[in-house]
């Protein structure tokens, strides 16, 4: 039986270790549970706190971008001086309006990134054997048009054919999980009440409705949410391990570091591997995993409050 801890004991465990994961080991809790409890009681985690001095240093550093040769501005020096991760600083800079995640990269930066990629592939080889090859702009445009047209006009029958083909491939490879085992949460497709957005399951669609409700509540700290906006790459991993991870949701709340949410009715080995690599390679990025028990709690709280709540037939 899990021991019940006082709020003061949980805060003390976190402050002594400066990590929700290490605090969880002390308390016998998962790191996610520590994180959730601290947020619930209004405690601001250390990774979200910046002093006024740190803020002034970050603003001044970004203001000095014009003094850097084109394509050479990076956060290594700033991160080392503050003792923080670059990704954490970049997120805070976006909150301050110092940068824009959707901005176009300069030609110099694109060239620098391309050179780094070529250097990496010279050692590790191109993952699809395309080293030295390049699609023409016309081919890229044609593929984009075809892909968009396909998903905009796909019929339920075509989706069913894709599903059967996918399941047959999984059976052949020995990694098929029957629907009764809980892996498939049904029902893939677009939701008109969510601006026609495409979701992979009823659970994801229902969670999106919760986030939308919270976003429209002026008393709720949630500012915005996004569906599958960011992919995290796992470079230089052994063959057979996941090469990337795409969380289901990104949640942005006032005065807090954005975090990610994974809706997971069935935790298979690949999912465990992705979360393990995510924790190791991106330690400053928090991922909240909502499993079956957590989803049932959300269902009890939100099912009667929302106009639409999908259930399995």
Q: State the helical fraction.
A: 40-55%
CATH names the topology of the largest domain as Trna Endonuclease, Chain: A, domain 1
Overall tally of structural domains: 4
- What ranges have pLDDT less than 50 throughout 5 or more consecutive residues? 177-185
Q: Structural class from helices and strands?
A: alpha+beta
Q: In percent, how much strand structure appears in the residues?
A: 5-15%
CATH architecture of the largest domain: 3-Layer(aba) Sandwich
- How would you spell out the order of helices and strands? HHHHHHHHHEEHEEEEEHEH
Characterize the structure shown.
The chain has 313 residues and is of the alpha+beta class. The chain has helices at residues 7-17, 20-27, 31-40, 52-63, 76-82, 86-95, 107-124, 137-153, 156-173, 202-215, 269-281, 292-302; strands at 189-191, 197-199, 222-227, 232-233, 244-245, 249-253, 259-263, 287-290. It has 4 domains: 7-43; 48-95; 135-176; 186-302, Trna Endonuclease, Chain: A, domain 1, CATH 3.40.1350.10. A 4-stranded mixed β-sheet has the order 3-6-7-8. A two-stranded antiparallel ribbon has the order 1-2. Strands 4-5 form a two-stranded antiparallel sheet. The radius of gyration is 22 Å and the shape is globular. The two termini are 35 Å apart. The relative contact order is 0.08.
Labels describing this entry:
single chain; 4 domains; 8 strands
Q: Would you spell out the secondary-structure blueprint of this structure?
A:
Layout: H1 7-17, H2 20-27, H3 31-40, H4 52-63, H5 76-82, H6 86-95, H7 107-124, H8 137-153, H9 156-173, E1 189-191, E2 197-199, H10 202-215, E3 222-227, E4 232-233, E5 244-245, E6 249-253, E7 259-263, H11 269-281, E8 287-290, H12 292-302
Parallel strand pairs: 7-8
Antiparallel strand pairs: 1-2, 3-6, 4-5, 6-7
Helix pairs in contact: 1-2, 2-3
